[in-house]
Amino acid sequence: MTAPVPIITIDGPSGSGKGTIADQLAQTLGWHLLDSGALYRLLALAAQQRGITEPEQHRAELAKLAVSLPIEFRPDSSGNSKAWLDGVDVSGAIRQPQISGLASRVAAIPEVRTGLLQRQRGFLRLPGLVADGRDMGTVVFTEAPLKIFLTASAEERAKRRYKQLKAKGESVNIARLYREIEERDRRDRNRKVAPLRPAANAIVIDSTEMSIQKVLDEILSLHYKLDLSL
Asked: How many Å from the N-terminal Cα to the C-terminal Cα in the chain?
């Protein structure tokens, strides 16, 4: 009998730090990484390129794109994962605030989530997978032995996003970022399919007062206690 591939899922709201933690965790363990949020962002970018501004009115078209969209994740010379759409590096484009908002609306469409489900599960391969998203532990990888729900206060998440954007030289308003985060939280929590919530057996970590390294150390400690390595 083939042993199951070890999985760690990290779910949580926007700005909780789950992307950074998942990336560092995957690098530390030498495992594969699934940034499921990037898939929805790529789909949102593809929708924008096709002139779709009201995704709820294009459900069938977006569902087809979810299955067939030419998406790749390739490491750059430094080993950092880059997102490619139809042969073009769009790693920066998919992180723009407009795409973030559109991605949240795209992600609320049940047909889209169904279309992306098998693509996400296709990332599961040896030696292991760290899966980052909003429904990794509740829907996509329900069998995962270690499920983390990473959260932080809306105020702290707005401050983090503000610092990130300012570091890139962008003009941002922290009050607007706070409102956008609260609105996205509301949409994610209240959508009919795969609402944002901790899995029943998830370990909740509040990162509001924690450094990246402290969160990483805590998850690694849980991992080694469970002995997930094959």
From this structure: 13
CA distance 65 to 67: 5
The reported pTM is 0.87
| Spatial separation of the C-alpha atoms in residues 160 and 218, rounded to whole Å | 21
- For residue 170, what pLDDT is reported? 82
DSSP 152-187: --HHHHHHHHHHHHHHTT----HHHHHHHHHHHHHH
| 132 contacts 18 by C-beta, under 8 angstroms | yes
The CATH number that applies at residue 110 is 3.40.50.300
**Which two three-digit tokens encode residue 166?**
């300012």
Tokens of residue 150, six digits: 């990473």
140-153 per-position pLDDT tens digit: 999 999 999 999 99
How many domains does the structure of the chain reveal? Answer: 1
| Phi, psi values for residue 74, rounded to 5° | -125, 140
Structure tokens at 39: 């898939």
Question: Dihedral of the CA atoms 159, 160, 161, 163 (nearest 10)?
Answer: 80
Does residue 2 belong to any structural domain of this protein?
no
Residue 114 phi/psi, 5° resolution?
-65, -40
Tokens of 61: 């078209």
